[in-house]
Structure formats: structure tokens, C-alpha cells
């Protein structure tokens, strides 16, 4: 379990993290979402004791990171790829990490296998692609078989097959009862991976909820109707208290209703309809809308 309590971080006049409090529970994947510059990496660095909070604290299974007796066995983290010296070979790097953390070296081959790097174990890291760097980072994070796992934008550089593979791996870790906390700025990817979401914007907490609830709260469904008689249909819908707007492509959007009600109403009024379908705004749109006013770096 990870407990974040009143966490803040200020860099000069920039408030990167602003009084964040939330809990990451074991047994499920928790997605950490926010637009670029929202403060995700800063929060994760503070979780790992790599940055000092200006206020507040983070507890990992009840203790601050600095108080963990055997950190690699308690928390596995994948922060920035390409942090390994290029001249090193993959298995040497992991063996060195294992030895300096009193982890049996037999574990090195296991994590290389888990990360899909067995074939590249003797390659120099300098020749690694970004995706392979991510895999090596993942292998290092798993070395101590920790119950808490932190991943910062882990799908960066992975090909579509790698993305699916990592998604399943993270879900598997959660199913084993581990705490899995993973950041991303891609809502659609998180919707497929996480069960719970923590969403921040400009360092502040915007949502701490299940993916299901987040979708229900932040997407709007409507019935799209294409008709050659928009004025008549609009009048009929409005008379029933249904809110109507125009869609970008010249159709009508009836809100807070369903196709059954609209179909019956159309028949009663004898309005010609060319097309009718239930639509919902995408989660990506909802995320952009929710975080829009909290974007640090505008487009
Ligand atoms: N070492 C630092 N010194 C000064 N400002 C910093 C430092 N690290 C982060 N910041 C600032 O803090 C804010 C949050 O940055 P952070 O990298 O945590 O965001 P993020 O959500 O991880 O963004 P991204 O998705 O782009 O990685 C930004 O305004 C950033 O410029």
C-alpha cells in the first residue's frame, strides 16, 4: 500500500505538486493520470525518496522510503529509461544490482525472462532500443520480487505487441496481490489497464475513483439523429423536455434520453429520419475536458 499525505513540492516559484492526498491499494492496478507537467513524475520521485517534499509525506507499507530496510525487495520502480551506462551488458547490470542488494544472482535470469530480454542478455546496453531500455528497467524493478511496483510512463517506446504484453504483466502483478501504480498521459491506454484512477492537473487532485465511475461521471451519451426536418424534430423533442444540440456534421444530438424514446417520438410526430444511433463522447475527450483548465503546457 502507498499512502500519500498532504504532499507538496515547490521548485522556486513553480508549484509542481500541491497538497496531494490519496492511497494506492494492493490487488489492483491504479493508473496515475494527468497532462504533461501535471506533477506525476515529481510525485513518483518523492514516493521513492529521490526528491524531498516541501510538505507532507509518502508511506510505503507504513514507512517512508528512507526507512525501508531492504528497498529493492519492498518497492520496484521503473522511472526513466536509459539510465544504465551504455557500455554495460544487460545481465552484468542486473547481476551487479543483485549483488549490491543481497539478492541471489539466480534471480537475474528469471527477470530477464520475465522482461522478454533473454535473447539480449549479453548485448551492450548502448545498442538497445528505447523499448529494450524499458524492458531492462522493468527487469531491474522486478529483481527483488517486491510487493509494491511503480511505473512512470512504462509504455513509452514499446511497440503495440509490447504494450499488450506489459498491460497483461501489470494486471498479473495486481492479481498476485501486489500494489501497482502506473503513470500515463494516455487515457485510452489506462482505461484498458487500470481499475482505479488517480487524476491530477497542475499538481492538484482532480479525481480518485474507479475507472468505471470516472467514465460514467465524465462522458456524456446522446442520441444522434440525421433528419431532413430538423426544425420539426427539434420542436417535438424540446416539447418533451429533451435537450437538443447540433452536431458538427449537421445532425441533431438529443441528450439525456435513449433511442427507444426518440424512436417512439419520431413515429408519433411522423418525422422523417435518415439515421439514428446512440453515441457517447470518448473517454479521451472527457479527460481532456476535465484536465483542460489544469494544463501546464498548452498546445
Ligand atoms: N527539477 C525541477 N526543477 C524545476 N522545475 C521542475 C523540476 N522537475 C519538475 N519541475 C516542474 O514541475 C512541474 C511538474 O513536472 P513533472 O515532470 O512532475 O510533470 P509530469 O506530470 O510528470 O509531466 P510529463 O507527463 O510531461 O512527464 C512542471 O512544471 C515542471 O516544469
From TrEMBL:
GO molecular function: ATP binding; ATP hydrolysis activity
InterPro entries noted in UniProt: AAA+_ATPase (IPR003593), ABC_transporter-like_ATP-bd (IPR003439), P-loop_NTPase (IPR027417)
SUPFAM superfamilies for this protein: P-loop containing nucleoside triphosphate hydrolases
Keyword flag Ion transport: no
Domain ABC transporter: 2-227
Keywords: ATP-binding, Nucleotide-binding, Transport
Matches recorded under PROSITE patterns: ABC_TRANSPORTER_2
Top-level taxonomic group: Bacteria
Any matching Pfam family: ABC_tran
Family: Belongs to the ABC transporter superfamily.
PANTHER family: ABC TRANSPORTER, ATP-BINDING PROTEIN (PTHR43335)
Protein name (Swiss-Prot/TrEMBL): ABC-2 type transport system ATP-binding protein
Organism, as annotated: Actinophytocola oryzae
Lineage of the organism: Bacteria, Bacillati, Actinomycetota, Actinomycetes, Pseudonocardiales
